[in-house]
Design goal:
The complex is a heterodimer. By secondary structure, chain A is of the alpha/beta class. In chain A, the strands form 3 sheets. A 7-stranded mixed β-sheet of chain A has the order 3-2-4-5-7-6-13, sandwiched between helices. In chain A, strands 10-12-11-14-15 form a 5-stranded mixed β-sheet, sandwiched between helices. Chain A is about 45% helix and about 20% strand. Chain A has 2 domains: about 230 residues, Thiamin diphosphate (ThDP)-binding fold, Pyr/PP domains (Rossmann fold, 3-Layer(aba) Sandwich), CATH 3.40.50.970; about 130 residues, Rossmann fold. By secondary structure, chain B is an alpha/beta fold. Chain B has one domain: Rossmann fold, CATH 3.40.50.970. In chain B, about 40% of the residues lie in helices and about 15% in strands. Chain B has 11 helices and 7 strands. In chain B, strands 2-1-3-4-6-5-7 form a 7-stranded mixed β-sheet, with helices on both faces. In chain B, helix 8 links the parallel strand 5 and strand 6. Chain B is globular. Classes of the chains: A alpha/beta, B alpha/beta. Chains A and B meet through helix 3, helix 4 and strand 9 of A and strand 1, strand 2, helix 3 and helix 5 of B.
């Protein structure tokens, strides 16, 4: 297919359609509304299902019902809307259904704003809903990657009967870049042995997240955990840049990772041996890759558009062997490459083992904030 | 002369063999039976997918012999919307209590009706939360004592009963919205007819349908089954008048 100039949100919506999305249920919220609008126009045109739900709560439960039939279904939202969906997501996880959700993250907490953020890391990666479940979380940094990961999301969801979140900050949703879409595929309804299609000539089936006898709930939990072990083994995804000889490892995902790459290149030009690890899957997390890097690098710098949510996963992998420093912007603010370059210079010059790098970070942030 | 056997009644095929967990004297069993008989008579069992709620009927999926999904509390109409939209040729119904439908699920039910979703809703109104032990519901009567209105429901602080059939009947997406009662044989027969019409409305694609069924909860009301039937008749009928609140013209002409 030719490369086209595409807006992130619209590219993700069209990518989902082209790989056989059968039904979309959503609710308007900035900065993801273009996904809903694209679906509203395209899905009926193709004879497929589009429903604008009464709320994100309605949308996630419509997705839950539609997924019970084996159909390829999805929803999309942004941070506050995703918070509202958490009930349904836990139920979907407990019922072991394949569902894809795109989260175009915005500034928070609360109503926050509509600027790009990565503040949903914890609620998406470490589970915002109740109970023990692990979604697969994919984090694109470009429009092309957003297209590719959306396509992959459906295959992963169906392979593992698992939730898959494509988590992009508002920047990836709103930016326009050249990207290549997949070819349009026919809808092909899978007919898994669990699908609710009407008990015509067969035993009845039911789909539920209820196991009233705790013993069977534990059996189910064990199955979920074993599946998660498989996913951890098979589905770690990350990109490495200049890491072969890197002394200072920068870790960042999505837009923060992309901006950090510019800063790493500038640092290289100054002779600083910096490299970048950009997790593409946030869940499962590339702990092993970071563990390896911690054996040869002398310091880490984590860069995020939040207050250090992924930082804690990097700290866990590094396990105190070398200093892990942090720089983040919060509440919808996006760092400039120069800010990150300054941080790289600082850490390269004086790597310090700090119990909590966020204490000093907040002091440094003081200087750039309005008074 | 050989005796000829004539089958006058059998257990509906739409019911499973699983013994139910409802309290003695509770009318859930009657409601289940009526739905099963109607689905048998309309030959819909193999085409039907039910959605169970959270409440006493949380295990409804065990008692019906057909495909079933189990929804989150109040969300059955949204789940049913998803099931129906991707399988328009299937019959989808929800079975919900008053806490589920009229309290936590108020948003989902109103919008499913508003959109004219082609689903059928069976709404069990027994004026309290049964499963959790008899708390006040939106349908609890003024002055009625429950475990969370121990001095009787005070309308000054807790408001008034919500009449769902009347409320949903105002929506153009609704094709058939009626209230029936399960307190005596005559009304049980009328309830069955209404259930049949509700499913027919769905089969014919006329719009959203709901049958509200006034039901008893002897355990939480603290009454014997017979006293409970009497209590329903004396107290619930005046507050929740039986009747047809919305009947699409296509249904009215078919059923004089």
């Amino acid at each position: 297919m030719p490369r086209e100039l595409l807006k992130g949100n619209e590219a993700m919506a069209e990518a989902a359609i082209r790989v056989g999305l059968e039904a979309y249920f959503g609710y308007p919220i900035t900065p993801q509304t273009e996904i809903l609008e694209w679906m509203a126009r395209r899905m009926p045109e193709l004879g497929r299902v589009f429903v604008q739900a009464e709320s994100e709560l309605g949308a996630v439960n419509m997705v839950y019902g539609a997924a019970c039939t084996g159909a390829r279904v999805m929803s999309s939202s942004s941070s506050p809307g995703v918070s509202l969906m958490m009930e349904g997501l836990s139920y979907i996880a407990g019922t072991e259904l394949p569902v894809v959700l795109i989260d175009i993250m915005r500034g928070g907490p609360g109503l926050g704003n509509i600027a790009p953020s990565q503040g949903d890391y914890n609620q998406m990666v470490h589970g915002g809903g109740h109970g023990d479940y692990h979604p697969i979380v994919l984090a694109p940094a470009t429009v092309q990657e957003a297209v590719d990961l959306t396509v992959e999301a459906f295959d992963l969801a169906e392979k593992y009967r698992n939730l898959v979140f494509v988590v992009a900050d508002g920047n990836v949703g709103q930016i326009m870049e050249p990207a290549e879409l997949p070819a349009l595929r026919e809808v092909k309804r899978a007919t898994p042995e669990w699908a609710l299609t009407g008990a015509e000539g067969r035993e009845r089936r039911f789909l539920s997240s209820i196991y009233i006898d705790p013993v069977y709930e534990e059996v189910t939990n064990k199955r979920l955990q074993e599946r998660w072990l498989d996913i951890q083994k098979n589905e770690v995804r990350f990109r490495e840049y200049y890491l072969e000889d890197a002394d200072l490892v920068v870790v960042g995902f999505g837009t923060a990772g992309r901006i950090a790459l510019s800063a790493v290149r500038a640092a290289r030009a100054e002779g600083i041996r910096a490299g970048l690890l950009r997790p593409v899957a946030l869940s499962p997390y590339p702990y092993a890759a970071i563990d390896e890097l911690a054996k040869r690098a002398s310091a880490f710098l984590v860069v995020e558009m939040n207050a250090g949510q992924m930082l804690e996963d990097v700290q866990r992998a590094v396990a105190g062997r070398v200093p892990v420093d942090f720089y983040g912007r919060m509440g919808g603010m996006v760092p400039f490459p120069d800010e990150i370059l300054d941080e790289i210079r600082r850490v390269a010059r004086d790597p310090r083992a700090l119990a909590d790098p966020r204490v000093d970070w907040l002091k440094r942030l003081e200087k750039v904030l309005p008074h | 002369m050989a005796a000829t056997e004539q089958l006058v009644y059998e257990r509906p095929h739409s019911l499973s063999e699983t013994p139910n967990s409802y309290c003695p004297g509770c009318t859930h069993g009657v409601a289940h039976h009526l739905i099963a008989e109607v689905l048998d008579e309309l030959n819909l069992r193999e085409r039907t997918i039910g959605v169970a709620p959270v409440g006493c009927s949380v295990f409804a999926y065990n008692y019906f012999n057909m495909d079933f999904a189990e929804a989150a509390h109040g969300r059955a109409p949204a789940m049913a919307t998803g099931l129906k939209r991707v399988q328009p040729g299937r019959i989808v119904f929800t079975y919900q209590g008053d806490g589920d439908l009229a309290s936590i699920g108020m948003g989902e039910i109103v919008h499913a009706a508003g959109r004219g979703e082609l689903i059928t809703v069976i709404f069990i109104n027994n004026a309290n939360y049964g499963m959790t032990g008899g708390q006040m519901a939106p349908t609890t009567l003024p002055g009625q004592k429950t475990t969370s209105s121990p001095y009787g429901r005070d309308v000054e602080t807790t408001g008034y009963p919500i009449r769902m059939a009347e409320l949903l009947a105002t929506l153009e997406g609704a094709a058939y919205v009626v209230r029936r009662s399960l307190h005596d044989p005559k009304n049980i027969r009328l309830a069955k007819k209404a259930l049949r019409t509700a499913f027919e409305a769905q089969v014919r694609g006329l719009g959203f349908s709901m049958v509200e069924l006034l039901s008893t909860c002897p355990t939480n009301w603290g009454l014997t089954p017979l006293e409970a039937l009497k209590w329903l008749e004396q107290n619930m009928l005046p507050a929740y008048p039986l009747g047809d609140y919305k009947v699409a013209p296509a249904l009215a002409s078919a059923r004089p």
